[in-house]
Specification:
By secondary structure, the protein is of the alpha+beta class. Helix content is 52%, strand content 15%.
Length: 329
């Protein structure tokens, strides 16, 4: 497999040199990824300083990835509003995903949805993968997004491992789909954006086909899917100020009981689970990357006081905010 890929400067290409560079550039990353979700295009330009291809619309990108590039994703943990599909070609990759260790190996397809807490803890020196990234907004407005509800959200929110172990033939087939997207990204095709959307839709449908043959299909009505997707769009924008289900139900013009029922039907979890997960990720990010006091973080995240924030964080993380921060010093 051979992809055209965006080239990192030499200091980022070696995992150990990357870790040293991370310390040196840490203040830059804090300013870049302070407290919001960033689009795929915003995050890429802020990190690398330039678009990966000329006249890029920011809707999607596909590239090769290695150990150094993969470690760097820890800097933006939970703050890029993009779906990511990573096919493992060679080597091993180990993640902490929602507090659980997940090891990926060749022919595994790893599926990531925006806002989920993931940390890369180890990558073998020979690790090589193909990564397809698609902007969340661009994805959610696509007709094929209903497939993504099953592909991405359902396994994630049920805390299943977001790993699809493919046969070698199926892995090669999905790699071919990704390679085709990569080729059009670097082409001068007049209708490149339109072709890329179609290719992404085909990729999602192929992925849905693989999942349908691997697990029982969970079907919900179109109306239920639309409400669930609308809730997922509201959450990243408002979770800091609004911790209550009533706000989201009001924005969607439905009752709190109905919203709770829909989220549980589609995802198998509660609205509060989603809100708490977003708050925990934001709190962890601020503790890890800023000098804000616990009281200041509690205020920024709209907790009543630092005591209630500490109680929340300790319950969710099984560490106090101070203990968690000490791990990153």
């Amino acid at each position: 497999m051979q992809l055209q890929s965006y080239k990192l400067s030499s200091e980022w290409q070696n995992p150990q040199r990357y870790k040293n560079c991370l310390n040196r550039h840490n203040s830059i990353f804090i300013r870049i990824f302070a407290a919001d979700m960033y689009s795929l295009k915003e995050s890429w330009i802020r990190l690398y300083g330039a678009e990966p291809v000329e006249h890029w619309d920011g809707e999607m990108y596909c590239t090769e990835t290695n150990a150094a590039v993969t470690y760097r994703t820890n800097e933006t943990n939970g703050h890029i509003a993009a779906y990511t599909f990573t096919l493992i070609v060679e080597g091993r990759l180990t993640l902490i995903y929602n507090g659980r260790e997940l090891t990926l190996q060749p022919d595994d397809l790893y599926i990531y949805s925006p806002g989920m807490s993931v940390t890369v803890v180890d990558a073998s020196n020979d690790y090589h993968g193909i990564c397809l990234m698609a902007d969340e907004h661009a994805t959610l407005v696509m007709p094929q997004v209903h497939n993504l509800v099953h592909i991405a959200y359902k396994p994630i929110v049920q805390l299943h491992q977001p790993r699809l172990a493919l046969s070698h033939d199926n892995a090669q087939h999905m790699a071919d789909r990704m390679l085709e997207i990569n080729r059009y990204l670097h082409s001068s095709h007049i209708y490149k954006s339109e072709v890329l959307r179609m290719l992404y839709a085909v990729f999602l449908l192929d992925l849905q086909d693989l999942l349908d043959n691997a697990v029982p299909l969970h079907t919900v009505s179109q109306r239920v899917e639309e409400i669930f997707i609308a809730f997922m769009q509201l959450l990243p924008e408002h979770f800091v100020q609004h911790h209550d289900i009533g706000f989201y139900a009001s924005q969607l013009n439905i009752s709190t009981v109905y919203l709770s029922r829909i989220v549980r039907q589609v995802a198998g979890r509660t609205v509060v689970d989603y809100i708490n997960q977003m708050l925990l990720m934001e709190a962890s990010f601020l503790l890890r990357t800023t000098d804000l006091t616990v009281a200041q973080i509690a205020d920024r995240l709209h907790f009543a006081d630092s005591a209630s924030f500490c109680k929340f964080f300790s319950r969710m993380k099984r560490l106090t905010p101070k203990e968690f921060r000490m791990q990153w010093l």
